[in-house]
Specification:
Distance between the termini: 22 Å
Largest sheet: 7 strands, mixed
Helix content: 25-40%
Structural class: alpha+beta
Shape: globular
Length: about 290
Amino acid sequence: MPDIHVVRSYGKINWFLSIGHLRKDGYHEICSLMQKISLYDEIEVVLAPSDSITCNYSVPVGEKSLLGKTLATLRELYPCLSGIGLAVKIRKRIPPGSGLGGGSSNVAALLLSVPAFLGLPDVRQKVVALAPALGSDVPFFIHKVPFALVRGRGEDVVTLHPSPSYFLVLLFPSFPISTAWAYRKWDEELGNFETLAQEGRRALDRFLKNGNREMFEKAIWNDFEPLVFRYYPVLKMYREILLGLGCRKVFMTGSGSTLVGVVENRGQGEKVVEELSQRGMNAILTSTLVEEL
C-alpha cells in the first residue's frame, strides 16, 4: 500500500439547469444536463495519527463542514476506519462558489478513492444511497460518468451518449456566489421566471427526443441566470464581452459565478483567454470530458 494517495477531482458544468418545486425535505427538484470538464482539484490522502484537512483556499474544514461530514460518512460505511486518522490535503484549481461543483466533486473523490487506497471492499450501492445527503451534485460525481441527465434532488442520474466534445473558456469573476443564497432568492421570486423555465424545459425535451448537436446547443439553459444577473449585473457585461470575442454560446453554470463560453477550437479559445487576460480578467481554457478518467 503506498504511503500517499493522490486523486484528481474533476469539475462540471450545467449545460441545462431547471429548478422545480421545493420538496418537503427542504431541497428543490432539479432537472439538469451535467458534464465533467478537464479542470480538476488534486487531493492527497495520507494515514495519520488523527484527522486533518487542509486546503489552499479558505474553505470550512471542521467536523461539521462538508469535508468533515464526508470523513464521518466514510467511517459509517467502513467502521474499521474508526481507529485510523486521515490527513487530507486539497489543492484547488476549481474556485469555491464558482458553480463548477468543486466541493461536491471533492466529496465524491474521497468516498470512492479512500477505500480503494486502503484496499477495502467496494460498497458502491451504499455510497450511492448516502451521497444525496452530502449535496445535490454529489451523486453525479459518484456515478463516474462524463455526461448525464440529473433529476430529483440530484439522485436520479441517467447516463447519456454520446458525450458532447467542446473547448470552453471559463471566465471567473472576482466574487463567489452562494448556492444557498441563489435558491433562497429563487423561492422569493419564483413567479417572475416561471414562464422562462417552461420554455427551457421544452428545449430540453426536443434535445432528448432528437439528440443531435444542433438541438443540444438550443437546449443550453439556466433558470438562475435572469435572477443572478439582476443582482450581479457585471455578469451581463462579461457575457457580452465573451460574445464579442467570438464565443458561439455563453452561459452561467450552476448558481454561478463562472461564465462558460463555447469556442470553435483550441486555437480560438487560447486567443479569447489571452484577450481576457490583457483586460485583467481571470479566465482559462478547458474542455469537456467525453469519457471517465
